[in-house]
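User: Small ask, check this?
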Amino acid sequence: MSGIAPLEAKLDQIVRRHAELRDLLASGNTADFAKLSKEFAELSPVAEAAERLRDARRQLADLAPLIADASDKEMRDLAEQEFLALKERIPELENEVKLLLLPKDEADAKNAIIEVRAGTGGDEAALFAAELFRMYQRYAALHGWRWEPLDVSETELGGIKEASAAISGRNVFERLKFESGVHRVQRVPETEGSGRIHTSAATVAVLPEAEEVDVHIDEKDLRIDVFRSSGPGGQSVNTTDSAVRITHIPTGIVVSQQDEKSQHKNKAKAMKVLRSRLYEAERQRRDAERAASRKSQVGSGDRSERIRTYNFPQGRVTDHRINLTLYKIDKVMSGEALDEIIDALLAEDRAAKLAEVA
């Protein structure tokens, strides 16, 4: 079987290192206890999966002569059933091991910043953008994540031109990263008298939240402007210049923040978003280089890529990347059924990565 020899060599190395770390930690004679404990914890799932695989292979090898020599028909039938069951299980165990050996995306464990913008479709697009923003807020609540609005630009009808929020919790970016792209809605707007279905869109961007250690930003590369914040329709909602606009001159990235009454707080929030956008731009560049040789990708995270359609008259949500359709639009919009789509996207991504290393 192709790939088994390198796989076995890698497993030997991991199992040996795991046993070595176990003995070192048990002896207590180590100065780097925390560092070695972390390495041991990271290797444990792989070492345990490797042992299950090797145990299954040993059992399979032991059963072959038993089947050949068994004079007792009942004993031979039992051995053959076990042999067939193990033959089916071994490829599953090999896949489990390969999955555990896949390189981890360092951003998966990070918190995330989500940005939603109204696209084509005027007021209807803005109303849909607001519904998407609420969908992610409910989804975050269902997972016990912390949701912190960063900047919300509302329209007079209760829609949003654009909005962003910071989401903190366990593996937030891993679960939300495939939400980036164009989300299309098909429905009859409340303002439509003839009952004609309209199509409009909103774009979503999910960025891994970058720490200061992840991205170095030179102060001389920034232009910082302050101005008075405005509400729906452009009316001034503040009498002081507390809103902040930061331009990163080398990349041309512009971030505005006006939700806080304090200029200092708005600047801190804007810097958080800027760091994350710069980190994501570099991450996308590296991913694009790696993806040049990839046969398939679930999604590039490109905001111009149409990823999903929400058809309200038919009650369906379709994710175009994996051809998955759910007839439960209300549960998707409430965040309850969003995991069904996200789990399928993660499974497809793992399968594509496995196909590359197989």
